[in-house]
Amino acid sequence: MADSPGTNSRFNVIPVKQASIRFKEGSPEEYAAVNHPPEQAEDDHVSTYSQDIDDIGYITCERYDRPRRGVDYDSDDGEGFNGEDTFEAMPRETNYVLSLTREGRARPTILELREDKTDIARVESGISRKDSAAVLIAPVTQTAQGIKFGWIRGVFVRCLLNIWGVLLFMRLSWVVAQAGLGLTVAILALAAVVVVTTTLSMSAISTNGAVKGGGTYFLISRSLGPEFGGAVGIIFSLANAVAVGMNCVGFAEALVELLAEHGVMMVDFTNDVRIVGLITMIGLLALILSPNALKWEGRTQLVLFGVIIGSFINFFVGTFLPRSEQKLSKGIVEYSATTFSDNFWPNFRDGHSFMTMFGIFFPACTGIMAGANISGDLKNPGTAIPKGTLLAIFVSIMSYLLCALAIAATGIRDATGSVLDLISGNITDCPLVCIANGTMDCTPSCRWGISNSYQMMTEMSAVGPIITTGVFAASLSSALACLVSAPKLFQALCRDNLFPYIGVFGKGYGKTDEPRLAYVLAFFIGCAVVAIADLNAIALIISNFYIGTYVLINYACFDASLSASPGFRPAFRFFNQWVSLLGALLCVTCMFMINWLGALLTMTLIVFLYLYMHFKAPDVNWGSSIQARAFKSTVQQALKLMTVEDHVKNFRPQVLLLSGLPSSRPALVYFVNTFTKSHGLMICGQVLAGEENLHAVHKLNKPVYAWFKEKKLKCFHSAVAAPNFRQGVRALLQVRLEL
Fold this sequence. Notes:
Elements: E1 2-3, E2 11-12, E3 14-24, E4 46-59, H1 110-115, H2 117-125, H3 151-163, H4 166-206, H5 215-224, H6 226-261, H7 269-288, H8 293-320, H9 325-329, H10 337-342, H11 354-361, H12 381-410, H13 419-424, E5 432-435, E6 441-444, H14 456-460, H15 464-495, H16 516-530, H17 535-562, H18 577-594, H19 596-616, H20 625-641, E7 654-658, H21 666-676, E8 681-689, H22 696-699, H23 701-711, E9 716-722, H24 725-733
Parallel strand pairs: 1-2, 7-8, 8-9
Antiparallel strand pairs: 3-4, 5-6
Helix pairs in contact: 3-8, 3-12, 3-15, 4-11, 4-12, 4-15, 4-17, 4-18, 5-6, 5-15, 6-7, 6-15, 6-16, 6-17, 6-19, 7-16, 8-15, 11-17, 11-18, 15-16, 17-18, 17-19, 17-20, 18-19
């Protein structure tokens, strides 16, 4: 608290030989001079106090000036909570602890201020007097910090790059052909509802307190407890690691098709995708492990963002250009109402349905957590996460919608790709392939058309190579973002020691504390996904992981809000607990409609992780929403019991046992426990004689309850401090058991 002159500290320490303090009469300032009465002020409204001090002396006074709006005197950066203008100082943890169990920040005395600067440092740092001798005055040094991003680069751009993945350019035209424009809009609307409700819940959590590193895991675990946080940490870090492999497969698929057009083939299409995908994984790992990885990753993201924007412009310009005979033969026509009408209705093939289309395309909307995943690298996460994420969702959904409209109006479902067929007017006359399944389903087997080729957006654009570059940029940027976020999230989880045998992955390296071992783990998971080499199958798998994470986030917010915990008071004004519940139910429904078996396995894993954390009861105190709900329920039930009259049928033994320290009289405690068990009430009372034992009362509870747990006893412990044993017993006997 004591500080140098000119700071925002509450106390000013001024070395003077003769000091004079002036303040308005009647204000709450306290005079800090030593045994000198105040002199009579010349002015009725102003009093002056003077005092002679030694050659090197200090004089103090408290300032009660009204703080300027937006200034937080207790914060390091001088800004209010979450960037809001506040008059109040930020609350400290020591404001809420029991005053008898912990020594708080001491207020300096006049003697300390006059004699030794060491004690001044002790007061500023909150060190107790008994430890102050070890404190030395040293200049304040600012700790090294990593690169900090604003809401545009850190959240908006990062989310857009993660959302605009490989599925945008390689599956959107195919989805329009299968589901039709009408159901494609429904898919986008359903995906938008899911991600927006989850973002609202995420914004509520991110504005519920100070946000540090660890991303989604840190936000949920510190706000809602380890049960939800541990489950989200495992599921979401796994989903991001799988997403790295999915985007590398998309990149490899585009590159292999490009090479095949020029007659280059190593083995076959599937194995070539595996080879290129593994090489891509190695390159990304080398990039992320290089020095200043976060700095280069940020610059790379901006370059890739520019490439994707250029690809969008190139695509929309190309849809308005005149068509060549080669493009017309591939089923690319000018804007046509007839084509738009034909593509409006669905035409599902190969056993696909609305929900399979939703499951395949949904990963294209799942980059909403990219900003929250690097919350520790953001300047102001409380405002950056909601603003940047919601804007990124709006921009991405609108871009998908505009692309779908252009595809539906300019693309034919089936085309032979032959100019001769175009001249003869038979470009849609494709040979039929029939499957004998009792009904002889037959479908056209053309090479081109939006139902058959994944490269139709490239063919529709003005300059095809630009779209190819955009595919590469979208896939690599998403893979890079996931490869950065997944290990950082997993690192925070490992450092909390919630799960066994994973602590080694929490170790950080370098100035920015990079989780290199976690990077390697994510690399191997991505390689396993690359080995599948089927983008549609991988998309269905990853959808379950992402939607499962969204279920936890939405339900956790609803649970915390329902418990009416004072620790959950989000500053985000658009949050509503019923919207979060609706989002959770919608996510569960989507999971089972996409793939009921995969959803069942995912939900089983989530329930297992949740129950493991619940029964393990890790030694952390983060303010779980489950504890808040249990306390609320207990109080409500106790209030109901107040109106219930005693009856012999409802009798339960209620015993106040004067046992002293329970472990010293185990036979007595065991005897009473034989008839109270877990159905009655037993309170073990203990008296600590002597005023000096006042501090020991609260320190006894932890070892006593540990002994209860070891002996499997269901009872309570109550200790009182009194001048003598008799008065202590009287105090205990005044307890009335009304339960």
